[in-house]
UniProtKB/TrEMBL annotation:
Lineage: Eukaryota, Viridiplantae, Streptophyta, Embryophyta, Tracheophyta
Listed transmembrane segments: 49-67, 74-100, 112-131, 191-214, 234-256, 277-296, 302-322, 334-353
Pfam families: Ureide_permease
Keyword Nucleotide-binding belongs to the record: yes
Protein name: Ureide permease 1-like
GO cellular component: membrane
Family membership noted in the UniProt record: Belongs to the plant ureide permease (TC 2.A.7.19) family.
Keyword list, A-Z: ATP-binding, Membrane, Nucleotide-binding, Transmembrane, Transmembrane helix, Transport
Length: 359
């Protein structure tokens, strides 16, 4: 069984996890914006997410097995990829990292760790301001439209990432995107999306401390002589439970959809190959990203591994490159966006610097 021995190795794992965990939401958003139903996307995602866990368990973990993140998909549509990542990441870091600090017997340097958490809180404030400013920018763009016939007056440009013909960031682009995407958001209250986002943040904040307890048994729930789960076995069980719950929920949503989505079926899902490769890739990235996060956390502490929740650093990059987010926005939006990304960068550096070494 392979174990990370050094703090430097753990930090490398966490940086790779940050890259993977910040990329898979962008890939799922890409397929949804191309019109694929989120239930279909998530069913594909869960298959390869489990495959990644099995691969890690049998290779790095070398275990012999014996039988013994749906909410955010909908939130992205309502409030956007970047702001969803900002809010969920910040909730996860503030709650999850604090819990892990005490569960890990305070092996992190508190004088560094908690200022890092404070940086996340500042970043989420900037993120909220970015969202509000960008929304105001989009409203002013859409006010230029009196009817859909005005679209032809805008500059046309091919956008291979989304399959849209309008110039990224224009009002025409926003209207055509709304027509193409699976989840329609025009006229809907963002309160729904924000509520889902906060619920997702609470869930994200608790699974890392629960994983910490599973591998280190700080509450001494195991009977005498019963060995603790190693990180690979715990990760496998974690992924199996995620697979089962996601499978049940999404099959239910196929036949009883929410948020105005059309009704589907398991047969329709099997026949839907539009964007399937991207959905499967998203599951692999999330699975390997979570595995790397837990591997690094087991060595350098799960509190320090909370740094991988700085997903907006990666997801905002993909949002700009793939989806044209913040294109043709105001100077105020760009200043706020730069400030948010700077604070997340500082937070990641500070949290990783606080890393300890588990005895």
């Amino acid at each position: 069984m392979y174990m990370i021995e050094s703090k430097e190795g753990a930090i490398i794992c966490m940086l790779l996890a940050l890259l993977f965990l910040g990329t898979w939401p962008a890939i799922m958003t890409l397929t949804e914006r191309r019109g694929r139903l989120p239930q279909h996307i998530y069913l594909d995602y869960t298959l390869t997410n489990l495959l990644a866990a099995v691969t890690i368990a049998f290779t790095l973990g070398q275990i012999v097995l014996n039988l013994g993140t749906l909410a955010t998909q909908y939130a992205w549509a309502f409030v956007g990829l970047s702001v969803t990542e900002v809010i969920t990441a910040s909730i996860a870091v503030v709650i999850g990292t604090t819990l892990n600090y005490f569960l890990d017997d305070r092996i992190n340097r508190a004088e560094i760790l908690f200022p890092g958490i404070a940086c996340f809180l500042v970043a989420v404030c900037f993120g909220s301001a970015v969202y509000k400013s960008n929304e105001d920018d989009n409203k002013s763009k859409l006010q230029e439209f009196k009817s859909l016939e005005n679209v032809s007056s805008f500059q046309m440009e091919t956008n291979p990432a989304n399959g849209l013909a309008q110039e990224k960031g224009s009002a025409a682009f926003l209207i055509e995107l709304e027509k193409q995407r699976a989840i329609k958001v025009t006229g809907r209250s963002t309160i729904i999306g924000l509520a889902i986002t906060f619920f997702a943040g609470i869930c994200f904040s608790l699974f890392s401390p629960a994983f910490n307890l599973a591998t280190n048994d700080q509450w001494h729930t195991l009977k005498h002589g019963v060995p603790k789960l190693n990180v690979y076995t715990a990760f496998f069980y974690f992924s199996v439970s995620a697979f089962v719950s996601a499978l049940i929920l999404n099959i239910k949503f196929l036949y009883w959809p929410v948020l105005g989505l059309p009704r589907s079926s398991f047969k329709a899902y099997l026949n839907d190959w539009n964007g399937r490769g991207w959905s499967l890739l998203a599951g692999l990235l999330c699975g390997f990203g979570n595995g790397l996060q837990f591997m690094g956390g087991q060595t350098a502490s799960y509190a320090a591994a909370g740094a991988v929740q700085a997903l907006p650093l990666v997801s905002t990059f993909w949002g700009i490159m793939l989806f044209g987010e913040y294109r043709r926005s105001s100077r105020r939006t760009y200043i706020l966006l730069t400030s948010m990304l700077f604070m997340f960068t500082v937070a990641v550096a500070v949290l990783m610097t606080s890393s300890g070494h588990r005895k």
